[in-house]
Amino acid sequence: MKNLIIKLFVLIIIILNCLPALSSETKQQRDERMQWWREARFGMFIHWGLYSIPAGEWKEKQIGGGGEWIMESARIPVAEYEQLSGQFNPVKFDADQWVRIAKDAGMKYIVITSKHHEGFCLWDSKVSRYDITDAAPFKRDILKELSDACRKHKIKLCFYHSIMDWHHPDAQAPHYPTYNTSQKKNPDFSRYVENYLKPQIRELITNYSPLGVLWFDGEWIPEWTEEYGRDMYRFVRGLQPDIIINNRVGNGRMGLEGMTEEGSFAGDFGTPEQQIPPRGLPGVDWESCMTMNDTWGYKSFDNNWKSTQQLIHNLVDIASKGGNYLLNVGPTSEGLIPQPSVEQLKEIGKWMKVNSESIYATGPSVFKNLAWGRCTTKPGTLYLHVFNWPQDGKLQVPGLKNTVKKAYLLSDNREKKLAVKNLEDSVVINVPAEAPDKIDTVVVLQIKGEPQVVSPVITQKADGVIELLAKDAEIVGLTARYEFVDGKDDIGYWTNPADFVRWSFKVNKTGPFDALITYASDKGTGGSEYIIETDGQQVTGTVKETGSWTTYETENIGELSISKTGVCVLDVKVKKMPSWAVMSLQSVKLVPSEK
Description:
Elements: H1 2-23, H2 27-40, E1 42-46, E2 57-58, E3 61-62, H3 70-73, H4 78-82, H5 95-104, E4 109-115, H6 142-153, E5 156-162, H7 189-208, E6 213-217, H8 226-239, E7 244-245, E8 287-290, H9 308-320, E9 324-329, H10 339-355, E10 373-378, E11 381-386, E12 394-398, E13 404-409, E14 420-422, E15 426-430, E16 441-447, E17 458-459, E18 466-469, E19 474-476, E20 481-483, E21 490-492, E22 500-507, E23 511-520, E24 529-534, E25 537-542, E26 553-562, E27 566-576, E28 584-592
Parallel strand pairs: 1-4, 1-9, 4-5, 5-6, 6-7, 8-9, 17-22
Antiparallel strand pairs: 2-3, 10-11, 11-16, 12-15, 13-16, 14-15, 18-28, 19-22, 20-21, 22-27, 23-26, 23-28, 24-25, 24-27
């Protein structure tokens, strides 16, 4: 007994000594703690739980929404849902196989749902019997096996853990009518936090450490306050000081880019979900978590799989903006990662085997927009990711002023140099007639000094026409972004009506101009009203459906006058957005009026 008291006293001293350090962490200490994560760039998300058994169906009905939300979406009572635990027997689960799939894809870390909102635990918890070893016939600690496999293959193991819990009687959020009426509040949320949530977090960190990340979710319930978030952050880092914690430990009510509201506690990194911030999140560590089809948890009938090209382009796009890509798989109730996911990850792995140097430990692009692809960086090196290969064999790098010491294909012999020519406003690289990789060929530029890039100036043509292309625009907002792939050459993903598009250009000849706009609009997305304004004037238009996102049409929507020479600004703004997206904007052209 005396020895036990001494051990507890020592533990308390250690924790107390850690807490001041957590609150006064220097930039250097934070950088050291975040280093492996910043260099990793690519990880696997795994959503797995009892919801894999119904696989999106309940009582012979297909249920909408994510497979992992079926308890809520199908309004399944707790007692009825609990019975699924007796059926959870994933006899085909092979932790080593899962980790090898992730490793072979080029992933550096795995984040698995230790407990999702349903409340079922994938480890042998001592504070609950609603877990894989006590409530299910499987009787094996899934997290322990995964931990051993990750250690063997040198992959960082990380846990997702839901703050919200639909199963625990002290944590059933009142706005979920299946579990509580609006009149019945949570019986004792603080008791749930202190006697259940925290002890389980302690189990996860103590039994499976060292963990890379603790990835919280479900923070939006009204009971989870700012104080709870800060206290949990201190609690977790007191148990493992070098662990990384996402922003959803706070209660900042997730915004469009996955960041908490200004002034709210935001953990260590942002978590934009199912999207890539158009400009990244400058000055902030962030990670886009995205699905391979339409759901996180397994749904047997969800076959809307993204192409290998889209997944690789997503990875490159995110890295080029300074973020990480957390790509999800949803295993079946048998314990198998769906075959389409396996095949896609294998293809990504083939690309990564050749090109991973251009992803791991890279910094963001130094270019505003690149019509042919993206750019990642390392000191003295630019990795040019060419999605759209130049047909004339000349790759133009706009605005680059540095002297190029060497240029070569990453997939080729480094001594096999590519010819480079410096022009006044760009660098031109002579490349092979055909792209070695149709999805993304990486051209490496070794340059002298820090990158020096000058944004090209849009100038009025000799015939008076001012052509404003999507690739040259400044995009202001949260969702809209430039895309040049799969037949697109436009500003798409324009789903936030507050976003707008801006061009700066030089006018040599004033006068009246016809405003011609070229855009595309898919079926069912027409009707948005927009404004084009410049030099204190504006014209308005209404988006018409063109039939698809790549069927572009041009409209003359009215006349604008520019009264002074020099630099001018033109904006395209949204007045009304009745559907879920504005349009895919390809260009605005100002043509001198014939009047």
